[in-house]
Write a structure and sequence with these properties.
This protein is of the alpha+beta class. The chain is built from 12 helices and 10 strands. The strands form 2 sheets. Strands 3, 4, 6, 7, 9 and 10 form a 6-stranded antiparallel beta sheet that branches. The chain has a 4-stranded antiparallel beta sheet with strand order 1-2-8-5. A hairpin with a 4-residue loop joins strand 6 and strand 7. The radius of gyration is 26 Å and the shape is elongated.
Amino acid sequence: MNILNTKQSYHMAGLLTLSLRLVVGWVYFSAFWRRIFLKPALDPEFTGYLGHKFNHFLPNSLGIKPIIEWLLENPDSLLVSMVIFTTIEGVVGLLFMLGLFTRAMSIFITGLAFAILLAAGSLGTTCLDEWQIGILGIAAGFTIFLSGSGKYSIDYWLMKTNKKITKSNWFNWLGSGELPISINRLNKIVFSGSMVILFITLFTNQYFHGGLWGSLHNMSIKPKVEITQAKLTNDSLSFQLFRVEGVDVYGSFLIDVTLTNNAGDKILQLEAKDLAKFPKEQITNKYISKIEPGKHSMIIPLGAKGTVTVIDDKLAILPKGDYKLKLTDVSGKNWTVNIVK
């Protein structure tokens, strides 16, 4: 195959992937558009603040949980990172659609998609939404890196008009046009890269959803709350709650907290009306998504972690022994933990 035909082949490949470039570019640019122009998602005081979405990622993220937790514990740094991430999405998405420095933008697209996959691959109530977005973004970024952009792109216009920048050795690697590698090496890159992406696909599908073997599961459907550090001290009962599963767009609704002794006798009970009026000062939240009393129950958003302290005179006279704490969600699910005083 001569040089002219090779160049034509790359231009044709870029042309055939036009719809993929436009759609994927819009997916990322639209995130910027929504947060800046359609709703104030970068305002920490706004109910739909992006940081809360980020908080939802924490319980089941893969490999980057310490980074997410550090940002959640440092709200100012979290806001800065949200602004930077949104800006990158906007710039990369727009340039990807326009076809300017297409291959460089495809590298960013792949990186953004991989970050989404690791952070939010567990989320999605119906179609494994975030996992699909992440893994398809990785595949799209890799594909567009190989093809570059075709006729309908700024890269193509720069090459057609023989702009000086297109004569640089790096332009074909970061822009578009013929990659300066042999066909045999290209074959190996395509196959190896595709196999790596397939491995990431299968591994994360199994990790997040059990998609290959075992029990298929969706951690976004039913609420799950972990109870730790439960203890009885003087006239108080304290316990730490961490909501790790369930729908991310609304909380778990706690409607009953019951403490019983070893014989099953009820020592203390807080019903829905009590939890709806629970004193906020007796809840110590760790992250920006907060456990708090709602209109009819206590609300526990996905990713929220906090310590709840119940103060009651009856607890001061409890004898030493074994006790059981039981929490009940409005869905009927309940969680228990044993306490030794």
